[in-house]
Amino acid sequence: MQDTRPLLLETDFPPLRRSALDTLQVNLGYVCNLSCAHCHVNAGPQRTETMDRATIEQVIELLRRDNVKTLDLTGGAPELNAHFRHLVLAARDLGVRVIDRCNLTVLFEPGQEDLAAFLAGQQVEITASLPCYLEENVAEQRGKGVYDDSIRAIRQLNALGYARDPALQLNLVYNPVGPSLPPPQSALQEDYRRELSQRFGIRFNQLFTITNMPISRFGAVLLARGEYARYMQLLRDNFSASNLETLMCRSLVSVDWRGYLYDCDFNQMLGLPLLASDRMHIRDLAQGDTLEGHTVRTGEHCYGCTAGQGSSCGGALEA
User: Fold this and answer.
1) Which one, out of 162, 179, 270, 295, has a CA that is 20 to 30 A from the CA of 193?
2) Domain coverage including residue 125
3) Which residues pair with 100 in a beta bridge?
């Protein structure tokens, strides 16, 4: 697989400085039951990397002492980590908001039959990937049969109260199928709401549109198809300085499956550690340490977060 990393390191992207830490985004491993074409993690069923119990305990200790408000769990399929439920229970006991970045189909994996009920019982916020409300587009990006399982999963979550009970938030994620920017989030959200309600009677709270990042699997596809340069020019041509203040990397720390720290999930995949360090580990953060004011590591991929309406793990930066 071709690697875009060498092409992304040299950049003229505007300098950024970190603000106060609000969110800890933890990648629990690259094991996944799917192999999606847009995946910037290159996750899949053949991956074996997974966070161990000792590192999970270090995450819990950081939540306990540093007053982190949000724990954002990602992967791979984070639920396939053997210690996923232990971490969720500990975080919720501390009053931390927990987000599960769920691919929906994991609810039907062997051993996960009670997963939906567990998430509802802990009032875990679910941010679920559904790249389109049309089956053919989902099949192209995520594989045959994924669409039907995704709809079935949303129905199951709705039945448990998700998108009906204010305490049970269910958000959906749209990614473009190819090398293009997402359409305006608010208009697409209404399309999703109408189509999914009329076709299946299902509900959700918000739609997040996220720009595909030119790294890992998606970056390799761009290079193989000769589309990399055009896509990067598209991102640069649509740069919006108004998005700089609300970039997620300013208030988030990303933790990889081994416990090392990064400014964001994308920098994690590119091996660009926090503070330009020699891989700072979560255990290296002493009580009272503050990252506020430190420089964010940037690269050409950062234009993906600032293009057009902007992009973050919480969707468009411009409403």
Assistant:
1) 179
2) 5-306
3) 73, 126
Contact of 101 with 72, CB cutoff 8 Å = yes
Give mean pLDDT, residues 88-116: 96
Tell me whether the omega of the peptide bond preceding residue 121 falls within 30 degrees of 0, making it cis: no
pLDDT tens digits, one per residue of 35-61: 666 566 667 788 889 999 999 999 999
Both tokens of 233, joined, read 């020019």
Identify the band that residue 291 occupies on the pLDDT scale cut at 50, 70 and 90: confident
- CB atoms under 10 Å from CB of 85, counted, come to 15
Alpha carbon distance 251, 273 (integer Å): 16
Token pair for 97: 């908001």
**Which CATH number characterizes residue 53's domain?**
3.20.20.70
Could you please report the per-residue DSSP string of 68-94?
A: --EEEEESSSGGGSTTHHHHHHHHHHT
> What domain count does the chain have?
1
Q: How many CA atoms lie within 13 A of 283 on its CB side?
A: 7
- Is 318 part of any domain? no
pLDDT at 65: 86
Q: Helical H runs in 40-173?
A: 53-66, 84-93, 115-121, 135-142, 146-159
User: Which sign does the torsion angle of CA 219, 42, 38, 145 carry?
Assistant: positive
